[in-house]
């Protein structure tokens, strides 16, 4: 089993803690393999929550042996990190452990230098404060979450769940991630590369576009083209491309390619079909095109992806 530790810092955020608990600590007897999770603190073990609530968790002097460390929140007004907290988090990281943060937890990762040469995300309301304090860190306003397999961070609220689902998908595959998402009544996948919020109300065209993209997700696969999606939206291809880029920050072609790659990855994980058949079922012209896009977007070949996933399953 993969060991997870949820680390509470000086400031408790009940929602982000709830996200971490639901994602990683909830027993899931339907799975043959899952996380084993504990919640600890290195400081005070008494926390005040909203609505006159109180929360307690075990206090430790050293972090337990863990594969994944989750930081639900960290005080954004706190400019220093205690020596105990800093040394334990860095020890975990330098020993090969992974770390993800939700919302304000990115302030701790940045303060420890763990976001240097990486992409940073936090809740939009803290963005200017974050950029002013950590000008050397590459901050992205147009992302919900970011995860490189070692370090991850997210915006607040639902984006924390999106990041957690992405981690589950990497650890256990699409079937597990989809099951967890369904239980939480959420989409199975939401790209990290989306804006956190919209500054003006969406007009009728944008709302229609969102509905059409929901249709496209359900009908992704062989035969689906950008022209068909544009027609479904009652737009010319040129207008559709312009509206799509404005709303989703990527081109329709890239979006459709990512959906096809998702289908291919699911088939590589869950079937023994030949690569040529998987290419056809995912909507690629042939295996050559599938391999090209795997290399371009995922930096790995389909065969190597299948082999790596099977190795993870065998050793999990």
TrEMBL record:
InterPro entries: Class_I_gatase-like, DJ-1/PfpI, Homeodomain-like_sf, HTH_AraC, INH-QAR
Protein name: Transcriptional regulator
HTH araC/xylS-type domain span: 210-308
Organism in which the protein naturally occurs: Alteromonas lipolytica
GO molecular function: DNA-binding transcription factor activity; sequence-specific DNA binding
UniProt xrefs under Pfam families: DJ-1_PfpI, HTH_18
PANTHER family: ARAC-FAMILY TRANSCRIPTIONAL REGULATOR (PTHR43130), HTH-TYPE TRANSCRIPTIONAL REGULATOR RV1931C (PTHR43130:SF3)
Keywords: Transcription, Transcription regulation
């Amino acid at each position: 089993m993969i060991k997870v530790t949820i680390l509470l810092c000086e400031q408790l955020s009940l929602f982000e803690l709830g996200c971490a608990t639901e994602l990683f600590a909830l027993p899931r007897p339907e799975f043959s393999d899952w996380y084993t999770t504990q919640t600890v603190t290195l400081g005070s073990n008494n926390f005040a929550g909203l609505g006159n609530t109180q929360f307690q968790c075990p206090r430790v002097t050293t972090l337990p042996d863990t594969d994944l460390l989750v930081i639900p929140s960290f005080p954004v007004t706190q400019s220093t990190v205690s020596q105990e907290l800093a040394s334990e988090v860095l020890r975990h990281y330098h020993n090969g452990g992974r770390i993800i943060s939700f919302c304000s937890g990115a302030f701790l990762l940045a303060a420890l230098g763990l976001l240097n040469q990486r992409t940073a995300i936090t809740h939009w309301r803290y963005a200017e404060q974050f950029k002013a304090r950590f000008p050397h860190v590459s901050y992205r306003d147009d992302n919900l979450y970011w995860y490189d397999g070692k370090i991850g961070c997210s915006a607040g609220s639902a984006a924390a769940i999106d990041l957690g689902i992405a981690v589950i998908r990497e650890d256990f595959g699409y079937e597990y991630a989809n099951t967890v998402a369904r239980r939480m009544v959420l989409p199975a996948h939401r790209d990290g590369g989306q804006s956190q919020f919209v500054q003006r109300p969406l007009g009728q065209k944008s709302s229609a576009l969102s509905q059409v993209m929901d249709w496209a997700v359900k009908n992704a696969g062989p035969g689906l083209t950008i022209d068909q999606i544009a027609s479904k939206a009652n737009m010319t291809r040129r207008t559709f491309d312009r509206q799509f880029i404005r709303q989703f920050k990527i081109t329709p072609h890239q979006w459709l390619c990512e959906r096809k790659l998702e289908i291919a990855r699911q088939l590589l994980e869950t079937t023994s079909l030949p690569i040529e058949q998987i290419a056809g079922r995912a909507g690629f012209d042939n295996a050559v095109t599938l391999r090209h896009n795997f290399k371009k977007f995922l930096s790995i070949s389909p065969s190597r992806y299948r082999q790596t996933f099977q190795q993870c399953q065998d050793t999990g």
